[in-house]
Amino acid sequence: MEFTITADGAMTVTVDGRPYLPEPFAPGWRREAFPTILDALTAQYRSPLRVQVHEADGSTFTDIITPPRERTTPKPWEASAPAPVAVVSPPVPAAQPVLHQVAGAGFVAGEDVAVAIIHAHTDASSDGTARTLLTAEQTALAVTGEVILLGRISGTLTVGRIQ
Known about the structure:
Blueprint lengths: L1 E4 L5 E5 L2 E2 L14 H12 L3 E6 L5 E6 L32 E3 L11 E5 L3 E4 L8 E3 L1 H6 L4 E6 L5 E5 L2
Parallel strand pairs: 1-4
Antiparallel strand pairs: 1-2, 2-3, 4-5, 6-9, 7-8, 7-10, 10-11
């Protein structure tokens, strides 16, 4: 699939050489719709997708987007053992995540930004910065206090300190 973005942020999308258009009567595609389009197409095709982005400045980015894994639930006739008996215990309060910000510039607005030690992905804001939400346990794993932000479309790589 190919995304071609003009200087004003308008975007055309083709899948296997054919135009992929917004719903009838909806406005044309804009750069901001990029994550929504990718989500819809990965859900539709359920296989890795090769994505090529052509920017107005002539630069081109290519990536392979993989759909999230589907969790399979056993069918009732596949159950071989009786269901376990639930033991009721008082709820354990979950650790409340703390918002730690790592800022970086140069990302494409709305692009998927990988957070490493890769616990999650986040989106870049309209000004090209990204923030991520990490629990205390996840933060403890980053023993150097550094986190890598990797723009999946722009290829921007930022090493920042957890704030």
